[in-house]
């Protein structure tokens, strides 16, 4: 049985860290050993021979300390392989450094070196970065992620390592060759650290994995997988050119792998992270080949490991049957999740050329004549500029074409047996729920805006509508029957400022005529009104309607979100109010800039046909995050998939296991 949750990992195990620190302190008393990332910098050859430099004055690690480091690494490795925390994502329980603090910030110095790295530089950088990544959160990890994602800094160095001239399982101490066991494996472990994969600095994290994906063939396929096959054939992780003791004597901060299983699990989790982040990776032929090779090598390794006898430095998968079964259960589960991501994409890929299979499936339904598929699957073509087959391509905010489109949107039914272009499963469930929820949000403002524009085009509008055009107010249509489509209209709208926020980006300060409010005679009462009002709340969806200069009664529509709402500013004047809005369409910038530049030339006549409208019945924030999650969730990683989206295939009897 796997052990209960205890210490977090080898890299985060406080008790083990204390043991290491105590050992280190004892060693320092007998012989001081200064942390020096440049040990071997000028030599670096195999046993000092191939680097061409001198190895005089090296601060070698004392033998008792080497023995203690090796003992702790083995002990932590065995403990982690049997821990329930091995099921967690990432490499935190697989790749770790036991001797930490003196080495924590060395990576900052190494990354700034102005020459090409050698093996020693790369190993020390990765080891130091691993120690920093153990911080999980905070300034230190954000600083590391920013550097790794910096095109002129860490990202450039990362590409250097991936494109290093030579990689070997027997690199020894040769500075011109990267060790697969002691440099590349820790690097893959660094990339899959949860502190990095779950970091909030998404732009930098994405840049890191994009760089890895760009080198998928040259780095992963041609080098990493080749080295893994070599180790599988040997049934050993040993470097034939350097012993563990010799490596630790030169570099006490090195990670020493004791099991080939570590390589498999780290590589699988790296590939899974790439598939999760980069959508096109799921249909990449090289990715499919890598996964295929990984499955083949895993089968060979699993079969051969049973015939290996006990070793001096024990692999927990060799000497402990219970640990071995537990580890391969986790590995197979992770590989199954990875394969699901590929299988789903393969199915999509096979349909992507012309969606013939989707059309064939759809033709089986009797009501196909009234069932209009989305996007290019539709027999009469796409509806508008936001009509897509894949929900990930749909803008959460509507577009002008979508709002004014006369055709009905594609709204699949969640009822079993109703037509859909996707087979039963998680992808179909996510697609259906996304489209229905988005329509629930969009329908009121679609009806309101389309009817408001129709009213503007009438030659003889009603007196009530004329008042709305001049003073603003509540716009209703269909005699007030469809009250969920009502709009709040603000008139004489103009741009007065542009601001830039680090988190929210560009925001435009809009000025509009203050709506008439009964009982609000002074600034205090106006402020009290806005504090109680639900109008123009932060996060509300609004639309700016600007008249066309070329065509009469033709309006451009720009959708935006209220970014900030200051009641004091809203209530300051009795005839006007200001609000900050962030617009989706970048073309609005030139319009706003031109208007602000010519502020003195703006007249009431030039503003009389400009309107800012918001729906009175929807609150965007209540929908946005749910829609975003439905849109970005990978179908293969949907929790409780077999219950939420069972693959029926003619069998409706679903066995629900007891909790």
From TrEMBL:
Comp. bias regions, Gly residues: 41-54
Q: Residue span of the signal peptide, if any?
A: none
| One Pfam family hit | ZNFX1
Bias class Low complexity marks the residues at 8-24
- Please give the name of this protein: ZNFX1 domain-containing protein
Q: Where are the compositionally biased (Basic residues) regions?
A: 25-34
Ranges where the ZNFX1 domain occurs: 483-587
Where is region (Disordered) located? 1-57
Please indicate which superkingdom the organism of origin belongs to. Answer: Eukaryota
Please name the InterPro entries in this protein's record.
ZNFX1
